Amino acid sequence: MANSASGDSVVDRVVRVIAAFPEGVAVLQLSELAERAGLPLSSAHRLVRQLAEHGFLDLGAGGNVRLGMRLWELVNRNSPTLALRQAAMPFMEDIQQVLSRNVNLAVLDGWEALFVERLSRRGSVANRARVAGRMPVHISSAGLALMANQPRDVQAEYLGQFSDPGGKVTAGVVRQLLAETAQQGYAQLAGVVDPDTWSIAVPVVDGKRRTVAALGVVLPLAETRPQALVPALQTAARGIGRQLDKLREG
What we know:
By secondary structure, the protein is an alpha+beta fold. Helices cover about 45% and strands about 20% of the residues. One of its GO terms (molecular function) is DNA-binding transcription factor activity.
């Protein structure tokens, strides 16, 4: 692809334009979009017009730009997590009904837990995990459940580059958390993301013994009863793994 004067390719610039929308913001002014993407206004305008022609962006009156329905359509139709979400939803609904709590489903993406589905229950505690939202492995029970069940070389690479921006957690502490999670078969964290909640998560394993996701719940901090929660979560996680195998085979 042709490069700009700064050396970045057209693909680089397109990615920067699409990724410029922050979480929870549906509309940006063209000038703000250009600034966030690090592009001259004229270049941003040209790219936005071209992407709008294909339905990936919508360019409205007054220079308002929003993500297009075509982008949403392609992502949801071809997402690698589509089968996982289909397999997991009935079990997540069961868990929500039985435990009356928020339920999350996450996958490992780099050194972060990427949440691909969640069910929130009215009247329950705040659920900080959002669909398409991310959390660092070390502050998420889902992240710990995922990383604790990765191959040793993946864990070693993760711990080797680990740094906590807040300077409160060391690689040694995370190593201990991963070891405890692997030994217990589940991860739990209290008051980390939200001081009034705690979370627990278990790995979802497919027929090839690969940890493909983590299933978790969020509860009030005062409600600490893993002995009652873990068996229900593990049963659901096994069901998700079996259903995922069936969807892949079919």
